[in-house]
Task: structure prediction
Amino acid sequence: MGSRQVDYNTVDFMGYSKIQANIKNGRRHSVADAFLIPVENRGNLKVLTSARVVKLLMDPITKEALGVEYIKRGRRYQARARREVILSAGTFNSPQLLMLAGIGPSEHLLELGIQPLIDLPVGKTLYDHISYIGLAFKINQTIEPRELAFDPAEILKYLVKGKGSYTSLGGIEALAYIKTNVSKEPGDYPDIELIFSGIGSLQSDYGIVSVPTLGIRREIYDQTYKPIENTPCWSILPMLLHPKSKGFMRLRSRNPYDPPLLYSNFFTDPEGEDLRTMIAAIRYSIELSKTPAFQRFGSVLHDVPLPGCEKYQFNSDAYWECCLRLIAVTLHHQVGTCKMGRREDPEAVVDNRCRVHGVKRLRVVDTSVIPVTLSAHTSGPAMMMGERVSDMIKEEYDVI
Result:
């Protein structure tokens, strides 16, 4: 296909790579394992678990953040800040806490009976990566027998040695960054990420976990994927890196335990670029499956149409648009709800040091501040932000 094998965690990332992850001794090495556990006994660190922050404490006169209120085991507590408050509650809960404290779009806050303190466009921007999970390519031999997942010896190998099939990253084996033939991006700038799985498509777990988790209707699974439950398959998930469609977020109520309302607005861009790019990615994936490397396994596209899309000719643009609108899913890379930008930017919530505009002693440091979608997943950038802003804070307070 004219691509190269690369290391996608370098500047030279256009091409194909084996999957990379935070792994130690065969197990996922979480951010807590890497950053918190080694310093958990520090005198200036106290980590509370099973606690929920429900309120950002603000001085309405000085527009200054004072601390937070939280609930633990049914009791309400306050934590007061001597220097500043840092919200790292994520793309949904950081903006939720801001709006509950009166920091957000005044009109929306007044609708819920919240007195506006600072009029900021919190929640007005929401970008996300969407992926198509429906491609399945049948092959003539099993690459990784699913029976291994239920083999006690395999489980023991993982627990004792950190080896074997349980070290697999959810069945994902490779990634690729490509530029489709409909891209309008300049130079070597990808518009699609391809995610490769050698264990199959939706049928790989017999629909037990994937179907309910992804919200796939049972009739879709039963008609299209159940017939190939015992057929060896592999799949590609094309992921749209830079959608033109933009969503938004709103509060559901003044109750901090009520999840906010999310409007992703997938495939709503007026020019239809997002759909065209995803269809081009599907066609690229199909052509890739025809190459000699995959034909060694007799790779062939599973062509049972999705229920509701049978009226369109299989493999036509109209058919793939129908499929995309039916079972495209988020991979939870949401960004932008507390967008970073200059004060004069009508969509900006924080500045380039993550300080909330117009509020003293308050920062938001998580993926909610990322202003545009990335050619990447959001976990690495989130860690980078924690490292960078911690250095900024030490600089500002002259702490070594």
Remarks:
- The mean pLDDT is 94.
- Residues 48-121+335-396 form a domain with the FAD/NAD(P)-binding domain fold (CATH 3.50.50.60).
